[in-house]
């Protein structure tokens, strides 16, 4: 690859960091972090680590971001050894069932879903042999004039 396409600036002593990226895009991957205290977690990630609140649904999810492709979702829950932080990877709708079937065949009982989410995706959750929680998430087509889009706008997802 000859062209520099990363959102991360080239290294150097005078390099200026990019501003937080506020555009909406299909996220190729992101981390889910359980929190019992959304306010404290958001404050730490924002004031301490420089993330912005791209959008939040109170007590359900907070989508925080720094640069492009540096996305985290704060989700309800307690962080324990038995509740690992999970990672989500984008896929397409046609892959969800096949991924679920392959993983269930390889490790019976490792699959949960597919399930539709309020933010218009279909997710399948897989627990790997080492206990990692991997969510394969596929966006669903959205009628921007339909009921689902209206419900998403009511939740504060005004980019719909």
Keywords:
2,3-Dihydroxybiphenyl 1,2-Dioxygenase, domain 1; 8 strands; about 160 residues; alpha+beta; 8-stranded mixed β-sheet; about 20% helix
Report on this model:
The protein has 160 residues and is α+β, with helices and mostly antiparallel strands. It has three helices and eight strands. It has an eight-stranded mixed β-sheet with strand order 2-3-4-1-5-8-7-6, with helices on one face. It is globular and about 50 Å long. The two termini are 34 Å apart.
SSE layout and pairing:
Layout lengths: L28 E7 L2 H11 L3 E6 L3 E5 L5 E6 L9 E6 L1 H14 L4 E6 L4 E7 L5 E7 L7 H8 L6
Parallel strand pairs: 1-4, 5-8
Antiparallel strand pairs: 1-5, 2-3, 3-4, 6-7, 7-8
Q: What percent of the residues sit in helical stretches (DSSP H or I)? A: 10-25%
Uncertain runs are: none
Query: What amount of the residues lies in strands?
Result: 25-35%
| Average pLDDT level | 82
Shape: globular
Name of the CATH superfamily = 2,3-Dihydroxybiphenyl 1,2-Dioxygenase, domain 1
Q: What's the total helix number?
A: 3
Q: Which sequence of SSEs, written as H and E, runs from N to C?
A: EHEEEEHEEEH
Q: In the CATH scheme, what's the topology name?
A: 2,3-Dihydroxybiphenyl 1,2-Dioxygenase, domain 1
Compute the separation of the termini in Å.
Answer: 34 Å
Q: What's the CATH first level?
A: Alpha Beta
Number of strands: 8
How would a crystallographer describe the biggest sheet? 8 strands, mixed
């Amino acid at each position: 690859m000859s062209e520099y396409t990363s959102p991360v600036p080239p290294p150097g002593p005078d390099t200026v960091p990019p501003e937080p990226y506020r555009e909406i895009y299909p996220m190729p991957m992101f981390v889910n972090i359980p929190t019992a205290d959304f306010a404290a977690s958001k404050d730490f990630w924002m004031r301490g680590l420089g993330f912005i609140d791209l959008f939040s649904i109170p007590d359900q999810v907070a989508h925080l971001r720094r640069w492009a492709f540096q996305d985290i979702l704060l989700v309800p829950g307690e962080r324990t050894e038995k509740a690992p932080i999970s990672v989500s990877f984008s896929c397409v709708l046609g892959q969800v069932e096949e991924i679920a079937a392959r993983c269930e065949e390889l490790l019976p009982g490792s699959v949960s879903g597919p399930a539709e989410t309020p933010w218009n995706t279909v997710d399948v959750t897989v627990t790997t042999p080492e206990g990692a929680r991997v969510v394969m998430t596929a966006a669903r087509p959205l009628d921007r004039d339909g009921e689902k889009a209206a419900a998403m706008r009511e939740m504060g997802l005004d980019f719909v």
